[in-house]
Amino acid sequence: MSLTLEQARTRARARQELTGEVKRLLVDRLALDVDPDLIGDDQPLFGRGLELDSIDTLELAMAIEERFGVTITDDETESLLSLNRLADRVQANQS
Amino acid sequence: MSLVVAGVPPATAPVPTVRSLSADDIARLLPHRYPFFLLDRVTAVEPGVSAEAIKNVSAADPVLAGHFPGRMIYPGVLLVECVAQLAAVVYGTAAVQAAGGDLVGDVAHRVGYLAEIRQAKFRKPVLPGDQVVLRVQSGARVGSLISVSGQASVDRDVVLTVRLAVTERGEQ
């Protein structure tokens, strides 16, 4: 399937809005001292990235469920590894 | 009995399994002992889901001798601990049931750890003579971590709302 330029732009814009929303949710719920706009889309959430820990995983999974209605199960915790993966998981549920 | 305060959702909807657990029953479910055994009676429990308990605050409680001389107030951190102990009752009774038992059994060794205290709000001081009603509701679960929401009330007033993360510990 090929996209028209307009469709591609709409899709890219929707994705950008989604990642922006996930970043704001992350900063807000975990009370991070970071500007949401400065978080890179491929930034790891744990370890050297945003330095989240396993306890934050629970809060993040709850925030995603409340905001987007997406339940992250134990088998899908790799969705929490980076912002892009998290956005992919939310988007998969929306389409 | 159900208390609904504007803006504060009750930690549990009407609790289905109304069966009372005595202090001696609770002592079989929890490893805690004096002076850190805090719950007097569990008034309702749905194993793995929710529970309700009472704690009577007495001027004879030694902690009130120091908190504070001339102005006894039951420590808020101990109310949070009451919620954590009631959460352990919720998961302890579930473990007993999973093992084919009724509600009470010797599962104290399975009690996990308190991993996080979030958004604890102490809305009103708790004084000697108060009967504190505690409610907990089990929430989302990721890996061995479980989210728990809890509240404590005295008469019609909510005195504490809090969210905890606790860990579950398997056999041994």
How would you sum up this structure, described in words?
The complex is a heterodimer of chains A (95) and B (172). Chain A is mainly alpha-helical. Chain A has helices spanning 5-29, 54-68, 83-94. Chain A has one domain (5-94): Orthogonal Bundle (Non-ribosomal Peptide Synthetase Peptidyl Carrier Protein, Chain A), CATH 1.10.1200.10. Chain A is globular, with a radius of gyration of 14 Å. Chain A starts with a helix and ends with a helix. With 172 residues, chain B is an alpha+beta fold. Chain B has a single domain, classed as Roll (Thiol Ester Dehydrase, Chain A). In chain B, strand 1 and strand 2 form a beta hairpin. Mean pLDDT of chain B is 90; it is low at 1-8. The chains are: A mainly alpha (95), B alpha+beta (172). At the A-B interface, helix 2 of A face strand 3, strand 4 and strand 5 of B.
Q: What's the total number of strands of chain A? A: 0
In CATH, the architecture of chain B is: Roll
Provide the CATH architecture of chain A.
Orthogonal Bundle
Question: What pair of chains forms the biggest interface?
Answer: A-B, 11 and 12 residues
Give a brief description:
The complex is a heterodimer of chains A (95) and B (172). Chain A has three helices and no strands. Chain A has 95 residues and is an all-alpha fold.
What secondary-structure arrangement, pairings included, does this model have?
The complex is a heterodimer of chains A (95) and B (172).
Chain A: H1 5-29, H2 54-68, H3 83-94
Chain B: H1 23-29, E1 41-46, E2 50-56, H2 63-66, H3 76-98, E3 114-122, E4 131-142, E5 145-154, E6 157-167
Antiparallel strand pairs in B: 1-2, 2-4, 3-6, 4-5, 5-6
